[in-house]
Write a structure and sequence with these properties.
about 350 residues, alpha/beta, Rossmann fold, 2 domains, six-stranded parallel sheet, 14 helices, about 45% helix
């Protein structure tokens, strides 16, 4: 299997995701194929982010084409990311190679980091590509049922749902409930999550201590919020190391995910919470409601739920933490490849 991850060098879960599925030929290993990103820092601005997605994906397709031309490798291909505009180039190239392939599509929803015109163009191209893919030997992998339901309107072949994995388990036992009214928001505080909008529309009681930790796009918002009326707000505007994350989780009772209704990603911090046995409090959006209903690892934030959140007893908190740990044991980067094997075998038989 040839694995293609154009964003291997980005900060986040891209590297762990790719490494967990490492196979015979890996486009993301620069020592072997001299693949390096055209743009490394993708979070300075939305414009840079969009350019980085397109240029790095196009470059990965270019490297892939060189490998196929020179080495005539017989392996199938697994694209770990999907960028419609760049992937359309591969479809044209593959007419000549006739390769079998798998595409992991992480989301079919909107990406708020793209302009409305670009979002509309990408959506139309996605539909066109899905229709064309019916004529190729390929399989699609998604992480959510909502994406499978959308894709199967246009793509009539195999679609597999594989849960986005957690990090490997980082605790030995359930977390103790401190009951110190504390929320931790961590990860990249990006515009597509629109966490700021949640704080504008929802007045967080002052007795709740909130820590925001991660690389923040709109740091002025959080500085102003802290000055205005929230002495219980702590901000770490930097990439969070595992060591600091572990310390922050230890002193906060809940990981808080107040993402916007239009968020369409896989919420990596949610899965990281499972690895630490840390119960979560989430905004009331379908992604979180479905996950919490299925796995019972936390609660939905609302004014009505505040009393329920902070009046839970130690035993219930311990049960939530245990559910987090059990989820992580079943779904993590160490067993992610094993979950893909039946998909790979299915493609071989196509």
């Amino acid at each position: 299997m040839i694995t293609v991850q154009p964003y291997y060098y980005w900060k986040g879960h891209y590297k762990s995701y790719a490494e967990s599925l490492k196979s015979n030929v890996n486009i993301f290993i620069d020592k072997k194929f001299k693949y390096k990103p055209i743009i490394k820092n993708n979070n300075n601005s939305n414009t840079l982010y969009v350019l980085s997605r397109f240029l790095n994906y196009f470059y990965a397709i270019f490297i892939l084409s060189k490998i196929l031309l020179k080495k005539k490798i017989k392996d199938n291909i697994h694209f770990l990311e999907f960028e419609p505009i760049a992937f359309f180039l591969f479809i044209i190239i593959n007419i000549f190679f006739g390769k079998k392939f798998i595409i992991t599509i992480h989301s079919t929803g909107k990406n708020n980091r793209f302009s409305y015109l670009l979002q509309f163009s990408r959506k139309l191209l996605l539909i066109l590509i899905l229709l064309i893919l019916n004529f190729f030997q390929c399989i699609i992998i998604v992480h959510k049922k909502i994406d499978k339901n959308y894709i199967k309107k246009f793509f009539k072949k195999d679609i597999y749902i594989l849960d986005y994995p957690s990090s490997i388990l980082r605790v030995k036992k359930e977390k103790k409930y401190l009951k110190n009214f504390s929320f931790l928001i961590y990860g990249q505080i990006r515009s597509d999550k629109n966490i700021e909008n949640f704080f504008i529309n929802n007045k967080i009681p002052k007795y709740i201590k909130v820590t925001v930790a991660g690389k923040i796009e709109n740091i002025n918002f959080w500085n102003n919020l802290k000055k205005m009326n929230n002495s219980n707000l702590t901000v770490y505007n930097k990439f969070i190391s595992n060591r600091l994350l572990k310390r922050l989780i230890k002193i906060n009772d809940f990981n808080f995910l107040p993402y916007d209704q239009n968020y369409s990603g896989s919420a990596g911090p949610l899965k990281d919470s499972m690895a630490y046995g840390q119960p979560v409090v989430c905004s009331n959006i379908p992604l979180f409601k479905i996950f919490l209903r299925k796995n019972n690892v936390g609660l939905i934030y609302s004014k009505k739920n505040l009393r329920k959140i902070f009046n839970i007893d130690a035993n219930y908190y311990k049960a939530l933490s245990k559910n987090c740990i059990n989820y992580c044991k079943k779904n993590n980067f160490n067993n992610f490849l094993e979950k893909h094997r039946k998909v790979y075998q299915k493609l071989d038989k196509c």
